[in-house]
Amino acid sequence: MLRTLLALALVSTGCGSRCKEVERARTALATRAPAAQRGADVRVTIPFERANTLFAETLAAQPLTMALEAPSLGPIELSVPALAATVREVRALPGAPGTIRFAISVEVREATAEIATLAMVVEVEPKVERSDGAAALVIGFGPENLVSVKPELGPEAKKSVGSAVSRWVPTRLRDKLPQPLLDAAASKLGRHLTGGAYDVLRATLLKRVGELTRMRLRLPDVPIARIDLRSTATLLVADLATELPVRRGLAPTRDDATEVGVVMSGSAVAELANWAIDHGHAPAWYTRGLTPAPDGEFRPRFDYVAEDREHPFKVYAFQERGGCSYFKVGVRAAIALDGDKLIVTALDRELEASAANPVIEVAAWVKYFLAGSLDRSKRIAAHTQLTVGGRALVTQVVGAELATDEVRFALRFAAGAPPSAELGVQPRHQRRERLAVTDEPVRERGLVQDPAR
């Protein structure tokens, strides 16, 4: 049926008129306008609980403790034992727009008992680092952020500090000292912990805490024009606007993610595939037999029309050498993961325009390029890499979904060496493809038919 359709198209149009038709189609595709106020094209979300789990694992692997100098609590005689401060917790919390908060807990104790917990909250602005076209978010705190932060004693501190002072009173004096003197000594100890002792901690222990919990998020390898940062009750959100002619951005953030996620609008997926071809990250030319070749005749192009609910993905092939032909096929698709393999299913396809030579197997082209564009999006998502305290975590894509004009990938991070190749720009001949394509039955309305049928 496909050959018949294309043969009829070929007969009904001469070579001259067909070249004009091809040029009109190519011009229309190249001049489509991006949406002016479209929101984010790509979004990266980090659940605070996931970040906090990584902080806890880091502190468990490298406990941070330092000795504190014993204060003078005179005029009464006290046997103050050796004191030590230990970082118990660092947690990321929502902050004001463009910021993130860190809550830090430091326990001060003697050998046998806790004395008090110092609690600090610092609000910092993540920084964007750009180098050689790549972008990364750096999120963390240092001594410069802690200068204006006043530590507070935990809610049970007054009781625990008073108990510590009472324990340090020599036995022979324990029943003879009036309570106001003990209260004064406890107050002096509290001021020492939030004053002189904190100054020492800020320059030493807390500096090391900032280094160990500093996050560096390498953003997806896309042409970023702008990055907007915000937080919800449970997520840190980085909205990326690209330089591409995206015609519909992403919907507002969902607040239910449990893993790090990368979401792309369907239009962004199509434009990223075009961008990859134009910038040498994917083959630009193909022969009639779908073989990438510098001297090939055909160039693929992509579009996504969200208003077309039946077939939003658009796959084009233009013959730009050795003749005039093209075709356009609309596709409704679904994606899923099987292990690390992306499964792309063409649920429905329709031949929407054609001025093509009937020797071209359009169905094979559509399957090949649709799967390739979505697989490239998966590899762009996998390019996202997280480093915590200088330890690079390996990225694994653990979920994939195509719904409501969005392509969503869930990521998981594990300790290990980062991959040596830059995902998303690796030459095709160096990659081991992990991709499968399937087709659901299509409706009989002049649709593209699978060559096997």
Structure description:
There is one protein chain. This protein has helices at residues 2-12, 15-30, 48-61, 143-146, 157-168, 179-194, 196-203, 205-213, 266-278, 362-382, and strands spanning 42-47, 65-68, 83-94, 100-109, 114-124, 127-131, 134-139, 152-153, 215-218, 224-231, 235-242, 260-265, 298-304, 313-319, 325-338, 341-355, 385-388, 391-403, 406-415, 435-439. The chain is α+β, with helices and mostly antiparallel strands and 453 residues long. It has two domains: 2-31 and 259-439, no CATH class; 48-215. It has a ten-stranded antiparallel beta sheet with strand order 6-7-9-17-18-19-12-1-11-10. Strands 2-3-4-5-8 form a five-stranded antiparallel beta sheet. Helix 9 packs across helix 10 (362-382).
Q: What is the topological layout?
A:
Layout: H1 2-12, H2 15-30, E1 42-47, H3 48-61, E2 65-68, E3 83-94, E4 100-109, E5 114-124, E6 127-131, E7 134-139, H4 143-146, E8 152-153, H5 157-168, H6 179-194, H7 196-203, H8 205-213, E9 215-218, E10 224-231, E11 235-242, E12 260-265, H9 266-278, E13 298-304, E14 313-319, E15 325-338, E16 341-355, H10 362-382, E17 385-388, E18 391-403, E19 406-415, E20 435-439
Parallel strand pairs: 16-20
Antiparallel strand pairs: 1-11, 1-12, 2-3, 3-4, 4-5, 5-8, 6-7, 7-9, 9-17, 10-11, 12-19, 13-14, 14-15, 15-16, 17-18, 18-19
